[in-house]
Write a structure and sequence with these properties.
Blueprint lengths: L1 E5 L2 E4 L4 E4 L2 E2 L4 H12 L5 E2 H8 L3 E2 L2 H15 L9 E4 L3 E4 L5 E4 L25 H8 L9 H23 L5 H11 L17 H48 L9 H30 L4 H31 L9 H18 L7 E2 L3 H24 L5 H11 L8 H7 L6 H23 L4
Antiparallel strand pairs: 1-2, 1-9, 2-3, 3-4, 5-8, 6-10, 7-8
Length: about 450
């Protein structure tokens, strides 16, 4: 492998270190990869899209995440955005590594003696040379003279570099300490020298948690909205496919007398049910993934279950009221429990398949994306089987119950039961069709959720 020398820096992709004057310059792994990417493409105006594809291949992040990464790398290199020596901003395009004298050499020899990063010894509070106080004033500032969010975030990262524990101790309970603690908590993921920033058991824990949620959602609100919409579309398409296939089987099954019109009708019902369910589960998953980083799997499971349960419960009561008011049919339709179960199952499958991804919203490619979709589909199929064994109907079972309670309906699923080998739409038929519904739902949800904008 090749390593690079520029100015008084040595960049070693093999050893994954950046060294300056024999001292390691800490960078989190993703930022290190970005610096290597820019050096490898030095002299080129690299588009932001190409950077996302090359560095953040497995996750989706906001534009502000890239700006944050560039700012941190510049600070590590001692660079200046106004008069850049290393990284130049190309307006409305991307970035260029502009240092001309980059030397490539084989990375098979040892590096000069590398010392760990120095540990700062803070000056006593109140001293004129105290580096903490100016930064703490920035992260706690309020009003018209308050700095912008990026300046506050940079101050938070510098506080981590000086010493996280000391910064928290100095912060104490001064005004706006909850917002500042939330900012320090969020910035620790981009600071290689950051220590832990606990919330539970600290002053104003609830206010800090709320501020952290607002901060993270504000930074990725557009991504969360796009992810939610894509999940809803994927679930809708999967539901439409399942409904259409079910309609065709009803027509072709022995003893089936359903008209051709049953195919588009069931496809439309499937689309509506799939889109609605995926919208709830997708919203819960996208929000949880954006807000929580240290307990990702648990947060995803809770978000998916709550989102699916809330939408399912609303659909359940709306369907019951509509059927009773319009056609006088009283059927115990499913919804809340089913949504909670499938949402939680989808979340567990999605979380297990993307457990190694960090730093954004999971969007793997190629085989990894297929594996994510398969894991989510399998988890939803297992959840649907559990519901069927408990006698809880999904879309097909609900349609069959409504058809049986209505006079002259041609949408009863009895022919499908006979196709499977049962005299009616029995337990085996319910289990198999429910599993197929769950698998299709999980597949469409995962493919939509993991779509890169």
């Amino acid at each position: 492998m090749t390593r690079y020398r520029f100015d008084d820096f040595i960049l070693s992709p093999k050893r994954r270190v950046l060294v300056r004057g024999g001292r390691e310059q800490p960078l989190i792994p993703r930022y290190f990869d970005l610096l290597v990417f820019l050096v490898e493409h030095r002299g080129e105006a690299v588009h932001r899209r190409d950077i996302f594809d090359g560095v953040w291949r497995d996750v989706v992040v906001s534009d502000s995440a890239l700006s944050q990464a560039i700012r941190t790398i510049r600070r590590t290199l001692g660079d200046n955005s106004r008069e850049p020596r290393f990284i130049q901003t190309v307006s409305r395009h991307g970035y260029r590594f502009v240092y001309a004298e980059v030397v490539e050499e084989p990375d098979d020899s040892s590096l000069p003696a590398v010392c760990p990063p120095p540990v700062s010894s803070p000056s006593p509070a109140g001293r004129p040379d105290d580096p903490f106080e100016p930064l703490l004033r920035i992260v706690t500032a309020d009003g018209v003279d308050a700095p912008d969010e990026e300046s506050r975030r940079e101050a938070a990262e510098m506080l981590h570099a000086l010493g996280t524990a000391e910064a928290l101790a100095r912060l104490g309970t001064r005004p706006r300490h909850a917002d500042a603690r939330a900012l320090l908590r969020d910035a620790r993921w981009e600071s290689a020298q950051a220590g832990p920033v606990p919330i539970l058991g600290q002053p104003a824990a609830m206010a800090t948690a709320a501020a952290l949620i607002r901060l993270r959602l504000r930074r990725v609100a557009r991504l969360v909205a796009a992810r939610w919409a894509a999940a809803a579309l994927g679930g809708g398409i999967a539901g439409a496919a399942g409904g259409a296939i079910g309609g065709v089987l009803l027509i072709a099954a022995p003893g089936g007398h359903a008209p051709t019109a049953v195919v588009p009708v069931l496809a439309a019902i499937g689309f509506a049910a799939g889109a609605l369910g995926a919208a709830g589960v997708g919203a819960g998953l996208a929000t949880a993934e954006a807000v929580v980083r240290s307990r990702r799997s648990l947060a995803l499971a809770a978000g998916g279950a709550i989102g699916g349960g809330a939408v399912g419960l609303a659909a359940e009561w709306l369907a019951r009221w509509t059927l009773a008011a319009l056609v006088g049919v009283h059927v115990a339709t499913g919804g809340g429990i089913e949504g909670f179960t499938l949402g939680g199952a989808a979340a567990l499958g999605f979380a297990a398949a993307t457990a190694g991804l960090d730093g954004g919203l999971a969007a793997p490619r190629g085989r990894a994306r297929a594996g994510m979709a398969a894991a989510t589909a399998g988890a939803c199929a297992a959840g649907a089987l559990a519901l069927a064994l408990a006698g809880r109907p999904l879309v097909g079972g609900t349609i069959h119950a409504i058809a049986q309670a209505s006079q002259g309906s041609q949408a009863a699923l009895t022919p499908l039961g006979r196709l499977i080998g049962e005299p009616d739409f029995g337990p085996v038929s319910r289990a198999l069709i429910g599993m197929a519904e769950g698998a299709l739902f999980g597949l469409g949800l995962a493919l939509g959720l993991g779509r890169r904008p």
